[in-house]
Design goal:
Strand order of the largest sheet: 1-2-3
Bound molecules: tryptophan
Shape: elongated
Largest sheet: 3 strands, parallel
Number of strands: 5
Number of domains: 2
């Protein structure tokens, strides 16, 4: 389904700051594509990250780094509106009103809350209220579609329910009900081992790491124990799955044939992968270095977009007050 002339929202949550190739193929590439035909917003969910990041400097560093990473990918003439959640003056005023039309019983069903409750973890209230803030992120901008991974599907359903509740309570077709776009076909992108991606396993490939680190990470990709000089099966190999993401059809064919040869080891495949990744991300990696030393270029654009986003929410708040009481 090709989506055109709609409003799309995507987000980045600065709980950590190493963009890896899965982030790229899942979040960045599709959003740049979709932004060609749609009004697209990219929100830095800094308020959401407060549920778990309680160290000021870590948070500040994360925010700066994720911004640099994302901007390194945006084309210079990109029309994606990148903005910071915390710069929306009346966002939380609206969240409060949404709180007032959200049933407690609905919130008890939220996975993020239930998972912790089952484990008997004493969560903070922001974790409990998280889906309501997220709802405001979406419906304050009249968003039609939010591209999400399956884990966020329930949150979009909540956004729909809460928007619907508001409309019903005030007998007005005010908030647009958003929909999710689910992309669940990207599980084929492997990590560097077969475990679930995790910061503590360090089993992901960071796009903006130094060449040395990148090499270390790629060399550590877990392969099977086929003897060095025996033919290997590319279709059962993490390295080859990754190669397929970055190489041309011709190159893929060429490497596939090499997997048969006694002189081609996983080690060789990994070096080819490193090369492919460095080429594929050459421009963003260069831009990353530039932005790192010139963060004001980003701030300038961001300030402009923050104002646009803030105006949208402020206008919403005026309209809501008019409906609710003032
Ligand atoms: N809940 C999302 C996550 O945990 C973050 C998020 C905040 C979000 N606001 C959003 C996602 C709005 C989609 C739309 O990753």
């Amino acid at each position: 389904m090709k989506i055109v002339n709609k409003k799309i929202l995507t987000w980045v949550k600065p709980t950590w700051s190493w963009m890896h190739i899965w982030n790229y193929f899942w979040a960045v590439k599709p959003i740049i594509e979709i932004s060609k035909w749609n009004q697209t917003y990219l929100m830095l969910a800094d308020l959401h990250s407060l549920t778990s990041v309680h160290d000021k400097n870590t948070l500040k560093d994360n925010i700066k780094n994720v911004l640099i990473e994302y901007f390194s990918f945006l084309p210079d003439d990109s029309e994606i509106i990148v903005f910071e959640q915390s710069k929306l003056t009346h966002h939380n005023d609206i969240v409060w009103i949404l709180n007032s039309v959200t049933p407690y019983s609905l919130m008890l069903r939220a996975h993020a809350f239930k998972d912790n409750k089952d484990k008997d973890i004493d969560i903070n209230m922001a974790v409990f209220n998280y889906p309501i803030l997220m709802t405001a992120d979406i419906i304050n901008f009249d968003i039609d579609y939010v591209p999400v991974w399956k884990d966020q599907k329930q949150h979009i359903e909540f956004a729909r329910d809460i928007a619907w509740n508001f409309n019903k309570t005030y007998k007005k077709d005010f908030f647009k009900l958003p929909n999710e776009i689910i992309s669940d076909d990207l599980w084929i992108i492997p990590w560097t081992d077969w475990r679930k991606m995790s910061k503590s396993y360090n089993n992901f490939i960071p796009i903006f790491a130094s060449e040395k680190e990148l090499k270390k990470q790629i060399m550590s990709i877990v392969t099977d124990d086929t003897p060095l000089e025996s033919p290997k099966n590319p279709d059962n190999c993490n390295v080859f799955s990754l190669i397929k993401l970055f190489a041309s059809d011709e190159k893929i064919k060429e490497i596939r044939q090499k997997y048969e040869k006694w002189w081609y080891w996983y080690w060789h495949a990994k070096l080819e992968l490193l090369d492919l990744i460095l080429k594929y991300f050459e421009i963003p990696r260069k831009k990353y270095e530039i932005y790192k030393d010139n963060f004001s270029i980003i701030e300038e654009k961001l300030n402009k977009w923050n104002i646009i986003a803030n105006n949208i929410v402020s206008k919403k708040y005026i309209d809501i007050k008019d409906i609710v009481w003032l």
